[in-house]
Amino acid sequence: MSAQRDRLDPASREPLEMLLTAVPGGFNAIADIVERRAFVRQLLQSMTADLPPNDRVVTEERTIPGPPGGADVTVRIYTPADATGVLLPGIFYIHGGGMIIGDLEGEHLRAQMLCELVNAVVVSTDYRKAPEHPYPAQVDDCYAALTWLSQHTTELDIDPSRLAVYGGSAGGNLAIATTMTARDRGGPTISFLMAPYPMIDDRNETASSHEVTEVGIWDRAGSIEAWSWFLGGKPADGYAAPSRATDLEGLPPTFIDVGEMDLFRDEDIAFVARLTQAGVPTEFHLYPGAYHASEVFAPEAALSQRIWAARLSALARALHP
Predict the structure, then answer these.
(1) Are 114 and 95 in contact (CB under 8 A)?
(2) Among 308, 289, 304, which Cα is nearest to 9's?
(3) From CA 144, how far away is CA 102, in angstroms rounded?
(4) Are 156 and 123 in contact (CB under 8 A)?
(5) Other C-beta atoms within 10 Å of 127: how many?
(6) Domain edges within the chain
(7) Is 76 left (phi over 0), alpha (psi -120 to 50) or beta?
(8) How much is the pLDDT for 30?
């Protein structure tokens, strides 16, 4: 067993070891990106195949206009089944996947959970992936979907004054970048931003980016590859890599968490410090023993339940004041 994995929470490590036994080196070791996407999709489906349908949430999928010059975007809308027509808060949800993998289905259960437990309408968006579609396609697609949401709040029974943006990992990058874009373009107004373990620094220079090399989930080599594909050979600006953003003032209250054994640990800690220095109310959690997305791979672990409890509590406080 890797010495780095010895530092992980034991209950969270067990499913990770099972994955690494099946796929030595983890899914990033699958060189072909099409095969890698298919493997991750199958893996996530196998983790949830035995779960019964959630009849407490109504789900609808739509195709909406994308950004100028871009293709249409698919969104999935989640509404509490017992909604009475009273305006509910909205959560704009952006899935993760390093800008290169992932889709709506892969985070369906988590979007569904936020809808039910936060009592909010969730709009989950897909977006184009690298390397076929490098930056800024991802940010453009997400901002187009956010703009569509803001223009349809009445139809969706969303209170426009209570609109949060949520995304983890690459979705955390896009949550921050989309929120900054909304700030800089004069809307939509975002009241809360939640970005678990966001992928925000293309430079890969922090101590943790050198430290995490063999945990098995989003290690250094895979992160460097993903950034290279995402940027497509062009230099990063502050929307592609929010760690490079020079102006963080005017962002909404923000929640960020990250694991002790996550490659993104130190870039996220540095970003949180800059947010607070810019006057942005910021809640931050660092979890000993957690690896990247450990709450996804080990949902039954007590550590994972603590992670989700903190997120759900923060969302409830922000959206149901």
Answers:
(1) no
(2) 289
(3) 19
(4) yes
(5) 28
(6) 5-319
(7) beta
(8) 93
Cβ proximity of 175 and 94 under 8 Å: yes
pTM of the model: 0.97
Instruction: Enter the tokens of residue 95.
Output: 């899935």
DSSP 197-220: S----TT--SHHHHH-SSSSSS-H
Please provide residue 260's backbone torsions phi and psi, each rounded to the nearest 5 degrees: -60, -35
The identity of residue 13, as a single letter, is R
| 164-174 pLDDT, tens digit each | 999 999 999 99
Q: What is the DSSP string of 74-115?
A: EEEEEEETT--SS-EEEEEEE--STTTS--TGGGHHHHHHHH
Catalytic residues: 169, 262, 292
CA torsion angle 203 307 48 110 (round to 10): -80
The three-class DSSP label of residue 63 is strand
Determine phi and psi for 240, rounding to 5 degrees.
-70, -40
- 42, 34 in Cβ contact below 8 A? no
**Which CATH fold topology does 5-319 show?**
Rossmann fold (3.40.50)
* Confidence grade of residue 44 (pLDDT, cut at 50, 70, 90): confident
